[in-house]
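About this split. The held-out portion is used to measure sequence recovery: a designer receives only the structure tokens and must propose an amino acid at every position. Recovery is the fraction of positions where the proposal matches the reference. Here is one held-out target exactly as it appears in the evaluation file.
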């Protein structure tokens, strides 16, 4: 991690002291960094694990309801949206903790807004899930098939 120095009111992060030859480059490295970030978020954020568990339940329910392709597309989009929002929230919280280790109203506001983004994404995902499930159950009750 690069050295951090306080310079008055702003925070200065020095360039990395690691040689460029030691840094991995290219697509495999990018996937490695992404996997490391996902693992760090998984370990540090219980809400990410809760959202992933809910996603597993939604997928299992979709399999039981024999959903058509378009319904799967909507569900995958909703699940991805919530997980991306949670990961971005984690990144924002981590960055705010780095640059503002003490209590500050703007740090709180930043974290609250990032958390609100997760809430909005989750509410949208619930709405999509209820609409898809309601449609699938109505289709099953009527004995009809077809695409969404």
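Reference sequence for scoring:
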């Amino acid at each position: 991690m690069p050295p951090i120095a306080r310079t008055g009111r702003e925070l200065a992060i020095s360039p990395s002291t690691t040689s460029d030859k030691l840094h991995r480059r290219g697509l495999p490295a990018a996937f490695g960094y992404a996997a490391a970030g996902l693992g760090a978020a998984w370990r540090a954020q219980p809400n990410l694990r809760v959202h992933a568990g809910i996603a597993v339940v939604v997928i299992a329910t979709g399999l039981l309801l024999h959903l058509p392709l378009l319904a799967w597309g909507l569900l995958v989009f909703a699940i991805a949206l919530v997980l991306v929002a949670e990961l971005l929230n984690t990144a924002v919280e981590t960055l705010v903790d780095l640059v503002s280790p003490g209590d500050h109203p703007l740090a709180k506001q930043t974290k609250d807004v990032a958390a609100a983004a997760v809430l909005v994404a989750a509410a949208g995902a619930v709405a999509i899930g209820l609409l898809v499930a309601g449609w699938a159950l109505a289709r099953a009750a009527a004995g009809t098939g077809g695409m969404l």
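Annotator remark: Strands lie at 4-7, 10-13.
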